[in-house]
Amino acid sequence: MSTTGSALRELHRIHKQLTDLRGRLDRGPKHVAASQGAVRRMELDAEQAKDAHKKARVSSDEKQLQLKSREAKIDDLKSKLNQASSNKEFQTLKDQIAADQQANLVLEDEILESLEKIDQLAAKVKKAEADLATAKAEATKVKTRIEGEQAGLESELARVLNELKEAEANLPADYKSDYLRVARVRGEEALAEVNGEVCGGCYQMLTPNMMNELYLAKPVFCKSCGALLYLAEGRGIGD
Ligand SMILES: [Zn+2]
Known about the structure:
- By secondary structure, the protein is mainly alpha-helical.
- The protein has helices spanning 4-82, 87-169, 173-186, 208-215; strands at residues 191-195, 198-199, 220-221, 228-230.
- It is built from four helices and four strands.
- Zinc ion binds at residues 192, 199, 201-202, 204, 222, 224-225, 227.
């Protein structure tokens, strides 16, 4: 029974390693999914930026067409001016030309503004596309790295699971089944090192009787959290 402490310490070490390996195996695919999610968001951003740019261009083109057609109309009115048959008709044509010219000045300002806006939107498209390319490269890198790691982690997990089986097989029969029952449900938390006279799993104070049993290298389960307790190296008999 003198090996109880060291056997449990070893078991706990193996369980902690399993928790770590499973955590890393679990996080890997989440990391990949997150980087792919970022790519999808940036694809959407780039699409929206392109769409806004296109709409601004269409609207600007329409304004330029409108300007040209109104300029043609002004030319037409000017030629009619020379053929006016009355003073009143002459004045009406002049007023109309003035009104159209005024409207075109406003339109020219709008076109200038729209061209500036198009430049800004084009810059946004460029940035969104660059961001997307960066995110895609990053996602590819993450995927390659994780896939490489996963294979290593899987084989490491298999190796450590084997180690666990061997360590469990060597446990003394008097508490093996109790341990196995707790370990199946709680994994790493099935075991706890005693810190001073406190359970390292739940910080419950242990009774003097429990401490005595531990010093005698007997199996003791924490009454509060149910963990199988063990002493740190050098504290128990035979350690
Ligand atoms: Zn406890």
